């Protein structure tokens, strides 16, 4: 991956691009989510290099690319985590400028990130992890609805979260996000390290989420699984967008898959 020196003494509020209206989605509809010219660094390593994309409400977007393409870094920048540092660009969700927010503020604005490591809190049961997600209003799904959609969690509601299997922890991480009042769900490698039978169960849950019209971005090394779930796809290479189109276009284009996804 190419590297450039990070700007010294960056003041994001000062140096970001002038405010722009969120871009319009397909068919002239205003995009529900927009990222515009995002640039982000880990120290001096230039990772996210001018990434732009938009999502319509209720769409599922697959964010794809080889290892090291910048997928997780892009999700983290959108979620307003401190690392990588966003130095330029704008991020809008439902007309709110996330680029002016910190991570906890973006979360309150309706953004939920389910990270690859799941971040289950040690010492807390399944239900306590869920209750913590609802510590402040507005709330999302009720516990009854969560346990109906995730029956394994209902069976283990009083078990310490970190003692669950990997697949069950992934379910808990997704359920914890849904317990909040979310507008955009970011999923980073939801199938990573899971047995095929558990992957199928996670896929069922994500299909249910799709039917409910929850706007979602999914980063997944299992690109074919993500593409069958998604409406649209973005492919990153070296921190830049090299494809933006429908998921079916990627499925149908073997040359594109081989060049950027090794499929």
Count of helical regions: 11
**How much helicity do the residues have?**
25-40%
Question: Architecture of the domain at 1-110 and 215-263, according to CATH?
Answer: 3-Layer(aba) Sandwich
CATH-wise, what's the superfamily of the domain at 1-110 and 215-263? P-loop containing nucleotide triphosphate hydrolases
Question: Beta-sheet strand percentage?
Answer: 15-25%
Q: What general form does the structure show?
A: globular
Any overview of this molecule?
This is Amino acid/amide ABC transporter ATP-binding protein 2 (HAAT family). It comes from Dichotomicrobium thermohalophilum. InterPro entries: AAA+_ATPase (IPR003593), ABC_transporter-like_ATP-bd (IPR003439), ABC_transporter-like_CS (IPR017871), BCAA_Transport_ATP-bd_LivF (IPR052156), P-loop_NTPase (IPR027417). Belongs to the ABC transporter superfamily. Keywords: Amino-acid transport, ATP-binding, Nucleotide-binding, Transport. By secondary structure, the chain is an alpha/beta fold. It has a domain at 1-110 and 215-263: P-loop containing nucleotide triphosphate hydrolases (Rossmann fold). It is built from 11 helices and 10 strands. It has helices at residues 12-15, 71-78, 103-108, 126-133, 143-149, 151-155, 166-178, 196-211, 223-229, 247-252, 254-260; strands at 33-42, 45-55, 60-64, 85-93, 96-97, 111-114, 184-188, 216-219, 232-237, 240-246. The strands form 2 sheets. A 6-stranded mixed β-sheet has the order 6-7-8-3-9-10, sandwiched between helices. A hairpin with a 2-residue loop joins strand 9 and strand 10. Helix 4 (126-133) runs parallel beside helix 7. The longest helix is centred in the last third of the chain and has 16 residues, at 196-211. It is globular, with a radius of gyration of 18 Å. The model is unreliable at 1-29 (pLDDT under 50).
